[in-house]
Design brief:
Radius of gyration: 18 Å
Strand content: under 5%
Helix content: 55-70%
CATH class of the largest domain: Mainly Alpha
Number of strands: 2
Shape: globular
Order of helices and strands: HHHHHHEHHHHEHHH
Number of helices: 13
Strand order of the largest sheet: 1-2
Structural class: mainly alpha
CATH topology of the largest domain: Farnesyl Diphosphate Synthase
Distance between the termini: 43 Å
Number of domains: 2
CATH superfamily of the largest domain: Farnesyl Diphosphate Synthase
Amino acid sequence: MSTTIGTAAPAIAHLCEPDGGRFRVGSDEAALAWCQRLAYAHYENFPVASFLLPRRMRRPTVVVYAFARTADDIGDEPWTDDVVQRRQALDFFDAIAQSPGDFPFHPIARALSVVRRNVDIPAEPLCRLVEAFRRDTQSVTMTSWNAIIDYTHHSADPVGELVLRIAGVSDPTLIQQSDAICSALQVVNFLQDLSVDLDRGRRYIPPGRRQPSLEDIEEAIVWCEQKFSLGRPLLRAPSIPLRLRLELRAIVGGGMRMLQRCKGLKGQLLTQRPRLRRSDYFWAFFS
């Protein structure tokens, strides 16, 4: 069993094999450890299952992250030029979401099967994620904010819903607030990746111009600020465990810090991709 994890083409190709290829695992613990290594190896604008999260939530959260991160890379990273191959691989991840026990040697499938024994991780939100990544296999043009809302319903909102479900929270109002935060985080990511996505034929900033105007970028920034505001009551909800609220505060803070970076660059986002520094995470948590 290989312990090397990455998003290079060979790694992604192996993870598209039913037995996990060189990442094949032979035990529950090996599968869970694999997902944890993947979760902590990736750069994100937010913490993934940090020490703030209640211990009982960490394993299920890193497994969901490993599923989402890998499926996203299948649809997004240049591991193959064959669109049909990408979609077949995503069909495989759809099958993992619905019946992970059918793939006992695949690290993500096995880990998902393990955590589902004790935690409610429904297939539907995972399948919505896969559908979003399937859309990413072709050129994308968002012509309106309604199109953005539909996209984030698949690409981002399921992540927040899954985290709440792992915490045992199913209140529809709290899920709506989570959706607002996740949608904002997704569009912040669009702004951050603007220079990269335009080269890939993806126009995520409405109205989908070949080169977004300064006004388009400013409108997207305001949209994100409004969504963050709608979601902020979630961070104070008494039914959310305290440590999860702290984790969510760090996640939202990281997203808002990145939004501030994007706000400072504006038109320069067409050629520059901002990143957070270590000091930004400190600011994010205490803001």
